[in-house]
Write a structure and sequence with these properties.
Radius of gyration: 22 Å
Number of strands: 3
Shape: flat
Low-confidence stretches: none
Strand order of the largest sheet: 2-1-3
Number of helices: 7
Strand content: 5-15%
Distance between the termini: 27 Å
Structural class: mainly alpha
Mean pLDDT: 86
Order of helices and strands: EEHEHHHHHH
Helix content: 40-55%
């Protein structure tokens, strides 16, 4: 995964947490751990998705930091109302859909925005919970896939059985367990077992 400087992430030296927070801070702490003789493997994860974050640690700390990308601009640029973050794109609909949209208050664009906002609000809790489950599973597979109780813990995660998940992970390395529980928090909040 190509890192972004405003990314929140966590770095591990084998199963010991090195640092967690903004990418630049985590990279500095990880470089210090490497210079101090960290045994490795060193793994950095995106805190939201648990995707691996690749950082080139060759050279001095200044060289490593210089290779990190700049934060992404907050507002996309291009056609549309850029200051509001509006982006123009093509939409293809049947004539009856265009007719219905044209009769809605606020016009076609307003009607489409309202439809998208309503659908997003209705699906947001389930989508967040599903993303939290997937991120937890992804991290668990990499960091705990060879630990006792891994498969049953994975099943408990997807069943939404928070108590069983905690029991099965209780004897795992502390930093791994705590990070897993933090990641799984989003799945437990919405109770989204799949």
């Amino acid at each position: 995964m190509k890192p972004s400087n405003d990314l929140s992430c966590s770095a591990f030296d084998h199963r010991r947490l090195i640092a967690s927070g903004p990418l630049a801070e985590v990279v500095r702490a990880t470089r210090q751990a490497l210079d101090a003789g960290a045994a490795g493997p060193i793994l950095i994860f995106d805190d939201r998705t648990s995707q691996p974050v690749e950082v080139d640690f060759r050279g001095s700390l200044d060289e490593v930091m210089a290779r990190l990308p700049e934060p992404a601009p907050a507002i996309p640029r291009g056609p549309g109302r850029a200051r509001l973050g509006v982006v123009a794109r093509e939409v293809t609909l049947l004539p009856r859909h265009w007719d219905w949209l044209g009769q809605q208050p606020g016009g076609i664009s307003g009607a489409l925005r309202r439809l998208v906002e309503n659908a997003t609000r209705q699906q947001e809790p389930q989508a967040r919970a599903r993303m939290a489950q997937e991120a937890t599973d992804r991290f668990m597979r990499v960091m705990a896939g060879d630990l006792a109780g891994y498969e049953e813990a994975s099943r408990a995660l997807y069943r939404g059985d928070q108590q069983r998940f905690a029991e099965l992970t209780a004897k795992w390395p502390t930093d791994v367990r705590e990070h897993l529980l933090k990641l799984a928090g989003g799945a437990w909040e919405s109770g989204a077992a799949t």
